């Protein structure tokens, strides 16, 4: 909402700099985006009078003008505007002047003819092209006849105004009008505003009852009020310059005297209005209802729109002619041939209007006000004000009476609150007189009994209906800076991370120490990607109103987002990428009201983690590399349970022969492996290895006590064993048996050779291990190690059927 400080002078006497006024509004009422000064940075732009206008000798569209700018001699200026003519007052940028967009005007020659300046259009002075009146959009702007040559032009165009650009919050819809803003500033500065009056003259011989019939077929809640007036004999023409200035300084484009009058009243009262060409209404019949499936309406922007059953429409003999509260229809548009105006003033349901504006992408000044609420008690007053203005600007007459389709009894809201409650909440010690004065400044009728206020809130402040609302009003007007600042009392505690927070932070450090870089991806994705790589079965959670088709569903896994990140880097020639992400996934079951949020940690690696150098070749990552990262991470958690890796083909997005589920005892906590080649191709990534762990489950699992053990000072003894074993027997099974039978001094088991080929029988493989024995307290003797080693060999032969080589 743009507030003209010059327009504010009609209401209040505020001899205050605009910047100071804006700061006061921001501290007390609503946010302010800034102060706009239309003439900022411009100088030497004056009124000029075109004395002569001759065709350019070497051009079919340029004109050579002699222009009086208040100096001893007229200036010769070459102009290409089609509407320049002798006798006009125009905008002249003198030589060495500065105009809009920080443009400097110099003397020049145009096709050999000297030009000492420039005749300007409004957009060349910095006006937004959307605000320039259509009749001068392709030419220069013509100033009034009483403009004096040589005077600065800014006052004639309202460019000497200072405009406060306010960002109105949804709860303060009353400030989407000059009246509402004036009431607010009057309370802040303790003034009595001069509110506008309506001077309406009706034609006693012309009764509206016989000419306009209004019927409401919608619910009372959808249309609480609907009224119309009839203005006849209107001459459609351009609005006077003062009205155009007020509109374009408010951010609206002047159209004609009828439309401009409705927009002016909209800005003044905050009440949306709409003007219909009465002669296009068959039998003067208007009805309001919900749209029907399959109906269409061509709106003023020329778009044919298919209506929805939730849309409120204004109809003529049941044919839609207007999208209520949003945009009028092209069929009943006010044009230059219009002479009779049917003027609508109504109140529509905020939810209905918001849905219509969203569904049709029609967010207008009218819909914005209906969505935030309007003053129900001011509808007919605004309707009368607009009718009077249209009749005055268009030399028309107003028919006697108002066609009422529906009316409502608008009563002020009464709220009761005690002085003690106000002081208790605000931490103040205000007296009765101070608080009473604040309510009076706000324009609230107040009575006091036993230190309890009974406050009558007028309809223009529809945001106030609870005692807490009154407390806020007292705080605002009294001044937030004046409220006492007190520290909370209580036993102080030392701030620290809880166990979950600490483990999440440590997990990030572990991943980064392993060479992975943190990534953060969107929690919202497509439904297909949301279901991919899910660790557990779950329904998906979809948004009712997603931002885009790529952000419709909450994720069940972190891997899909990491693969998108890899694809982004691969597309930019970064082929060695190792990423991890710690974040939440969202599991949902049919009986749940909202999804359950689970902390996960995942990683994705493609290419090599070892950079190529003069002595080191690149080493492409494989299953064992990423499994080693996972194993190291799980070891750092000191889990009390046994960690197992079980080959799995249950993940359709993963390679079935290179994927393992991860268990702690019998609880599934994650998986690790290679992305299926088909999946990698779909994501446009190369060979990629990933893992995902349920971090919430890992945090909840019991932990073993970690205790420091010194490095043994006694030597170790190693034994090697090679064996033929069934191809289906896993390394994990062999290692588990060795540990079970290897004795107390077996410290480490290392697989150093795997062979499956020539000289090895079919269905067999050759495995070779090194077993390391060491005692922490004494030197081991060879016989003791040999005895323990023999137990391992016997167990391998008897339990796994191994053939020792």
From TrEMBL:
Residues 410-485 form the B5 domain. Residues 39-154 form the TRNA-binding domain. Its EC number is 6.1.1.20. Keywords: Aminoacyl-tRNA synthetase, ATP-binding, Cytoplasm, Ligase, Magnesium, Metal-binding, Nucleotide-binding, Protein biosynthesis, RNA-binding, tRNA-binding. Binds 2 magnesium ions per tetramer. It holds the Pfam family FDX-ACB. Mg(2+) binds at residues 463, 469, 472-473. It comes from the Bacteria. It is an enzyme of class 6 (ligase). CDD domains: PheRS_beta_core, tRNA_bind_bactPheRS. One of its GO terms (molecular function) is phenylalanine-tRNA ligase activity. It catalyses: tRNA(Phe) + L-phenylalanine + ATP = L-phenylalanyl-tRNA(Phe) + AMP + diphosphate + H(+). Its main location: cytoplasm. It is found in: Cytoplasm. Its cofactor is Mg(2+). NCBIfam families: pheT_bact, YtpR. Tetramer of two alpha and two beta subunits. Belongs to the phenylalanyl-tRNA synthetase beta subunit family. Type 1 subfamily. This is Phenylalanine--tRNA ligase beta subunit. It comes from Lactiplantibacillus modestisalitolerans. The gene is pheT.
């Amino acid at each position: 909402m743009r507030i003209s400080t010059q327009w504010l002078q009609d209401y209040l006497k505020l001899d205050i700099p605009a910047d100071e006024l804006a700061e006061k509004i921001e501290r007390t009422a609503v946010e302010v985006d800034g102060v706009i000064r239309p003439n900022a940075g411009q100088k030497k732009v004056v009124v000029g009078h075109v004395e002569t206008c001759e065709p350019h000798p070497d051009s079919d569209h340029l004109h050579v003008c002699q222009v009086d700018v208040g100096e001893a001699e007229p200036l010769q200026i070459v102009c290409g505007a089609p509407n320049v003519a002798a006798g006009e007052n125009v905008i002249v940028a003198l030589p060495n002047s500065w105009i809009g967009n920080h443009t400097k005007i110099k003397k020049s020659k145009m096709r050999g003819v000297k030009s000492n300046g420039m005749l300007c259009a409004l957009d060349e002075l910095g006006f937004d092209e959307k605000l320039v009146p259509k009749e001068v959009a392709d030419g220069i702007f013509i100033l009034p006849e009483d403009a004096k040559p040589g005077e600065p032009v800014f006052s004639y165009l309202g460019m000497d105004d200072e405009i406060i650009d306010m960002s109105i919050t949804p709860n303060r819809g009353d400030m989407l009008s000059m009246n509402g803003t004036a009431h607010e500033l009057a309370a802040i500065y303790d003034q009595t505003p001069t509110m506008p009056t309506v001077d309406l003259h009706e034609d006693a011989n012309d009764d509206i009852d016989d000419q306009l019939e209004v019927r409401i077929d919608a619910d009372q809640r959808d249309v609480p009020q609907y009224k119309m007036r009839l203005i006849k004999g209107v001459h459609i023409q351009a609005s006077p310059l003062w009205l155009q200035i007020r509109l374009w300084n408010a951010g609206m484009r002047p159209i004609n005297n009828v439309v401009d009058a409705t927009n002016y009243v909209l800005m003044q009262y905050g009440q949306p209005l709409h003007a219909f060409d009465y002669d296009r209404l068959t039998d003067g019949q208007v009805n309001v209802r919900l749209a029907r499936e399959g109906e269409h309406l061509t709106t003023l922007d020329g778009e044919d729109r298919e209506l929805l059953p939730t849309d409120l429409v204004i109809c003529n003999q049941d044919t839609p002619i207007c999208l209520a509260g949003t945009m009028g229809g092209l069929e009943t548009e006010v044009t230059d041939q219009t002479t009779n105006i049917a003027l609508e003033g109504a109140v529509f349901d905020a939810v209905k209007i918001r849905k219509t504006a969203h569904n049709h992408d029609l967010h207008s000044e009218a819909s914005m006000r209906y969505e935030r609420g309007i003053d129900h008690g001011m509808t007919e007053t605004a309707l009368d004000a607009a009718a009077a203005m249209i009749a005055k600007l268009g030399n028309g007459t107003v028919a006697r009476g108002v066609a009422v389709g529906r009316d409502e009894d608008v009563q002020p809201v009464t709220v009761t609150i005690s002085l003690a409650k106000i002081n208790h909440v605000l931490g103040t010690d205000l007296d009765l007189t101070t608080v009473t004065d604040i309510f009076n400044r706000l324009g609230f009728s107040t009575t006091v009994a036993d230190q309890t206020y009974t406050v009558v809130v007028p309809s223009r402040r529809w945001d106030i209906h609870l005692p807490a609302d009154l407390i806020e009003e007292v705080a605002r007007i009294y001044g937030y800076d004046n409220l006492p600042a007190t520290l909370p009392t209580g036993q102080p505690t030392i701030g620290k991370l809880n166990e979950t927070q600490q483990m999440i932070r440590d997990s990030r450090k572990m991943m980064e120490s392993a060479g992975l870089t943190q990534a953060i991806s969107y929690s919202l994705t497509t439904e297909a990607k949301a279901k991919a790589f899910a660790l557990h079965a779950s329904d998906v959670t979809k948004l009712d109103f997603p931002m885009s088709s790529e952000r419709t569903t909450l994720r069940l896994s972190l891997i899909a987002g990491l693969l998108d990140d890899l694809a982004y880097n691969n597309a930019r020639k970064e082929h060695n990428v190792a990423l991890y992400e710690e974040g939440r996934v969202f599991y949902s079951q049919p009986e749940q009201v909202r999804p359950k949020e689970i902390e996960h940690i995942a990683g994705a690696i493609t290419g090599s983690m070892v950079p190529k150098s003069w002595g080191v070749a690149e080493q492409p990552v494989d299953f064992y590399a990423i499994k080693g990262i996972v194993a190291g991470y799980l070891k750092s958690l000191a889990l009390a349970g046994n960690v197992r890796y079980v080959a799995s083909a249950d993940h359709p997005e993963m390679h079935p022969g290179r994927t393992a589920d991860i268990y702690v005892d019998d609880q599934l906590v994650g998986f690790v492996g290679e992305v299926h080649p088909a999946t990698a191709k779909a994501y446009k990534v190369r060979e990629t290895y990933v893992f995902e762990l349920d971090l919430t489950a890992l945090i909840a699992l019991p932990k073993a006590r970690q205790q420091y053990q010194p490095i043994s000072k006694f030597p170790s003894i190693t034994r090697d064993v090679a064996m033929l074993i069934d191809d289906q027997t896993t390394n994990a099974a062999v290692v588990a048996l060795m540990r079970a039978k290897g004795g107390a001094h077996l410290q480490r088991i290392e697989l150093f050779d795997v062979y499956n080929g020539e000289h090895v029988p079919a269905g067999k493989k050759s495995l070779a291990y090194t077993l390391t024995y060491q005692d922490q307290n004494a030197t081991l003797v060879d016989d003791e190690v040999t005895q323990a080693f023999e137990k391992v060999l016997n167990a391998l032969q008897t339990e796994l059927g191994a053939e020792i080589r």
